[in-house]
From TrEMBL:
GO terms for cellular component: cytosol. The keyword Lipid biosynthesis applies. Pathway: Isoprenoid biosynthesis; isopentenyl diphosphate biosynthesis via mevalonate pathway; isopentenyl diphosphate from (R)-mevalonate: step 1/3. One of its GO terms (biological process) is isopentenyl diphosphate biosynthetic process, mevalonate pathway. Keywords: ATP-binding, Cytoplasm, Kinase, Lipid biosynthesis, Lipid metabolism, Magnesium, Nucleotide-binding, Transferase. The keyword Hydrolase does not apply. Residues 228-302 form the GHMP kinase C-terminal domain. NCBIfam families: mevalon_kin. It comes from the Bacteria. It holds the Pfam family GHMP_kinases_C. InterPro entries: GHMP_kinase_C_dom, GHMP_kinase_C_sf, GHMP_kinase_N_dom, Mev_gal_kin, Ribosomal_Su5_D2-typ_SF, Ribsml_uS5_D2-typ_fold_subgr. This is Mevalonate kinase.
Length: 321
């Protein structure tokens, strides 16, 4: 009979505005996507030497942790957590990882796995999860393997599971939501490595710093306008900022035919705004809708071939979702 030791979950995320520019010290607004989650369950496992095994079907991994490279994100998350826990001895365990999040889809799958894994393992070892700030810090270290030069926005919004205004090296701000915000997310079905897209922007930035700095400055202005609009419930201004942000991401050469096609379809079907989310290249887009347009926008995106479409709302409960 299976003996369960601990379980933890973590949400996905979406960046409403500010992706890429956030790496260069500009602000971003990120929201948790609580409907899509990673779940980590730890079970007792009979094995020699009280070892830790991982079973993660989503990445087709079934392996002893000691056989993974030291720089493997899962091994690093486990090693960092063990170092922070007071309990240093344990029996054999199996860590099972299941995820509803698309890999390479711009929804923070790597950070979500790290956060859920850190919480589940620390609960298993010490009887309670590490504090949120510690979980966030450890997940950020793992993000460096995934992305090279991460901003920290993914691990932060996922750790706290609240809409945030994020700027590198400054205290984060929880975003208060003034009126319900209705959103639709659609997946192109195309995986895109965040590190590849970030490195591409870096290369083009180095080649034309003046142009790209101007784009980043414009995005910063949009993020600040959107922040105020969300808090006072000004949906029309939020829509304007999201649409303009997508145009700037196109100018940065991180959008794609598939993303632009979904964005155009959403707008034509009645969305107030639509833009890519995450690093671009593939992955997902997000559309800002009303209660009346959520269904037709979703239907149009499904009809044009989006791999997965779902809707959700940010509620007017002082930052809750």
């Amino acid at each position: 009979m299976t003996e369960y030791l601990s379980t933890a979950t973590a949400p996905g995320k979406a960046i409403l505005l500010g992706e890429h520019a956030v790496v260069y010290g500009k602000p971003a607004i990120a929201i948790p996507v609580s409907q899509l989650r990673v779940e980590v369950t730890i079970e007792k496992f009979r094995c020699p030497d009280n070892e830790i095994w991982i079973d993660s079907p989503v990445v087709r991994l079934y392996k002893n942790v000691k056989d993974l490279p030291f720089e493997n994100p899962l091994r690093l998350a486990i090693d960092l957590t063990k170092d922070r826990c007071t309990t240093k001895t344990f029996s054999g365990m199996m860590i099972r990882i299941n995820s509803a999040l698309p890999i390479g889809g711009g929804m923070g799958s790597g950070a979500a796995v790290s956060c859920a894994l850190i919480r589940a393992l620390s609960t298993c070892l010490d009887g309670q999860a590490l504090p949120a700030e510690t979980v966030n810090a450890l997940a950020f270290e793992v993000e460096k393997i995934h992305h090279g030069n991460p901003s920290g926005v993914d691990n932060t919004v996922i750790t706290y599971e609240q809409p945030i205004y994020f700027k590198r090296n400054t205290p984060m701000k929880m975003v208060q939501v003034g009126t319900p915000i209705h959103l639709v997310i659609a997946d192109t079905g195309i995986n895109s490595a965040t590190s590849t897209m970030v490195n591409g922007v870096r290369k083009r930035y180095e080649q034309d710093k003046e142009r790209y700095q101007g784009i980043f400055d414009s995005i910063e202005n949009l993020v600040d306008k959107a922040h105020q609009a969300i808090e006072i419930g000004d949906i029309n201004t939020l829509a304007m900022t999201m649409n303009e942000n997508h145009r700037l991401l196109q100018a940065m050469e991180v959008s794609s035919f598939s993303l632009d096609r979904l964005v155009k379809t959403a707008i034509t079907a009645g969305a107030l705004a639509a833009k890519l989310i995450g690093a671009g290249g593939g992955g997902n887009m997000i559309a800002l809708c009303t209660t009346e347009t959520t269904k037709p926008v979703s239907q149009a995106l499904n009809a044009i071939g989006a791999v997965r479409v779902f809707s959700f709302s940010l509620a007017d409960n002082k930052g809750g979702i």
